[in-house]
Design a protein that fits this description.
six-stranded parallel β-sheet, 11 strands, alpha/beta, about 325 residues, Rossmann fold, 10 helices, about 15% strand
């Protein structure tokens, strides 16, 4: 019988769908995870207990517990002890694609809101003031959008934006068809009205978008960061906004998080911040994550390849 350690919030979605040969062990908090992780070959650390997850996994690996597979719901895995997991030969799977629809919807929501200056409209509503003219007149129609990151979120975002008749170009690690490679997109940043960051957080992508990239963007263009806060150099972002070169920014993520009180990014009228809500704002997330885990657990027991397995060399 294969023991799998799972957070109790997934119990309603998994109890009736336990694969044959599996025994689910439930934990409700960080202490229970730390106390039990060494007894299970399969673990699902929850993002709500990041510190305990790192500590418990490192301890279990060091003690030679027999841990064989770690599953997480997040698409980003930089919060885990990746070096230890890799050295221990432990399979790691992530939640790539589970958040794609919601994150893409938030990105488009931010772009539309900034284009139409929706915050100004809501403030007028709060005051009971009837605006005579629309405060924002920009459109996604014919807008040129560069989406850096061609994974499931990037693909979903392209489909939505093209429905608005925007002209979308994808960038990925290696050029493919009309998609730009990582050695190409910097040279054409000035051609786009919007740049959307959807890359994973790895050593290669940290601080990949800084003063040089921001300066190369089209004056007045918009930046969307739905990747990780550390992908953008925050000081350079503040400087580009303060100078007026960057026209607007929608940020689901910042560096640090939470964004401290009094941070300059709170003070810009042309910046909208959704506080890392984009990937979680969906009723179906837990159900779909549980279904993916159950399917992978059946594969693990059968000795079959796992779906959405992380490549440690790439970090995603």
């Amino acid at each position: 019988m294969t023991r799998a350690l799972v957070h109790a919030r997934f119990r309603p979605f998994l109890e009736a769908d336990v694969p044959e040969g599996a025994e689910l062990v439930w934990y409700e908090d960080a202490d229970q995870f730390r106390d039990t992780v060494s007894t299970c070959p399969v673990v699902w650390p929850d993002v709500t207990i990041k510190a305990a997850a790192r500590e418990g996994l490192a301890k279990a690996i060091g003690a030679g517990s027999g841990l064989a597979w770690c599953s997480v719901m997040s698409s980003g895995v930089d919060w885990l002890p990746l070096d230890r997991l890799a050295r221990g030969g432990i399979a790691l799977t992530n939640g790539a694609g589970l958040h794609a629809h919601s994150v893409a919807e938030f990105a488009v929501l931010g772009m539309l809101s900034l284009n139409k200056k929706w915050r100004t409209i809501l403030r007028a509503q709060d005051r009971g003031e009837w605006l005579v003219q629309p405060p924002g007149r920009e459109e996604l129609l014919d807008a040129r959008v560069l989406v850096i990151g061609a994974g499931e979120i990037g693909q979903r975002l392209r489909a939505i934006l093209e429905a608005f008749d925007a002209k979308v170009t994808l960038a990925r690690r290696t050029a493919q068809g009309s998609d730009l490679g990582e050695d190409q997109w910097r040279a054409v940043l000035g051609e786009f009205d919007w740049v959307v960051l959807v890359v994973p957080s790895t050593l290669e992508t940290r601080s990949m978008f800084g003063a040089e990239e921001l300066a190369a963007m089209k004056p007045g263009a918009g930046l969307v960061n739905i990747a990780r806060g550390n992908v953008v150099v925050q000081e350079a972002l503040v400087a580009a906004l303060s100078s007026g070169h960057l026209g607007k920014a929608y940020l689901d993520v910042t560096d640090p998080e939470p964004l401290p009180e009094g941070h300059p990014l709170w003070g810009f009228d042309n910046v909208e911040i959704s506080m890392h809500c984009a990937g979680l704002a969906q009723d179906s997330l837990l159900r779909r994550a549980a279904a993916r885990f159950a399917g992978n657990l059946a594969r693990f027991i059968a000795g079959e390849p796992l779906m959405h397995q992380v490549d440690y060399a790439r970090g995603y």
